[in-house]
Specification:
single chain, mainly alpha, Rossmann fold, 7 helices, 4 strands, globular
Length: 159
C-alpha cells in the first residue's frame, strides 16, 4: 500500500525493511541495532528529501512510541504535515492466511511467523490515523487515503 500511495502521489517511498536488508547483505548480523539503524537511516534520508520539498512515504511497522516520536519530531523540524496510515486485517483467520502465504520479504530478512506477528509490540496511536482494510481493493483504499490527505491539508497539519 505504501508503494502505491507514494507512486500515485509522486512521493519518495522509503521502506525500512529494504534499508535493514541492505545492512544484512553487507554482513552485519541481524539485531535490535540493525533494526534501529534502519529507522534512523530512513529518517535521515526523509529529512534530506523533505528539505528538497518532496513528499515522503515511510513504509514501516512503527509499533512503538519511540519511533513514532521520531517521525513527529521530523515533521515539526521540517514544518511538514504528517499523516498516519495503518493497513489492518480485522479478520484473524484471513490475517494469518496472508502472513503464512505471502512471498518472502526483501532478502535476507526472514518472513515473520504468525506467532511473531501475534506477539509483536504494537501500541495504539496517539494522533489521528487512517486505518484501511487490507482485504479491500488497492484502488478503494487509495481513494480513502487521498480523501484523508485532502481533509488533513484543508485543516492544516495533522501532527
Amino acid at each position: 500500500m505504501a508503494a502505491l500511495v507514494a507512486d500515485r502521489l509522486g512521493a519518495v517511498w522509503l521502506r525500512v525493511d529494504t534499508i535493514e536488508a541492505s545492512m544484512l547483505r553487507a554482513g552485519l548480523p541481524r539485531s535490535f541495532e540493525t533494526g534501529l539503524a534502519a529507522y534512523i537511516a530512513a529518517r535521515d534520508i526523509a529529512l534530506e528529501q523533505l528539505g528538497l520539498r518532496r513528499d515522503v512515504v515511510i513504509d514501516a511497522v512503527n509499533g512503538v512510541e519511540e519511533v513514532r516520536q521520531m517521525w513527529r519530531e521530523l515533521a515539526r523540524e521540517c514544518a511538514a504535515d504528517q499523516y498516519v496510515l495503518e493497513v489492518v486485517c480485522p479478520d484473524p483467520a484471513e490475517h494469518r492466511r496472508r502472513v503464512e502465504s505471502r512471498p518472502a520479504p526483501t532478502p535476507p530478512l526472514p518472513a515473520p511467523t504468525w506467532e511473531e506477528v501475534l506477539h509483536r509490540e504494537y501500541l495504539p496511536w496517539r494522533e489521528p490515523t487512517l486505518s484501511v482494510d487490507g482485504r479491500r481493493s488497492s484502488e478503494e483504499n487509495l481513494r480513502r487515503v487521498r480523501a484523508y490527505l485532502r481533509r488533513g491539508r484543508a485543516g492544516g497539519p495533522s501532527a
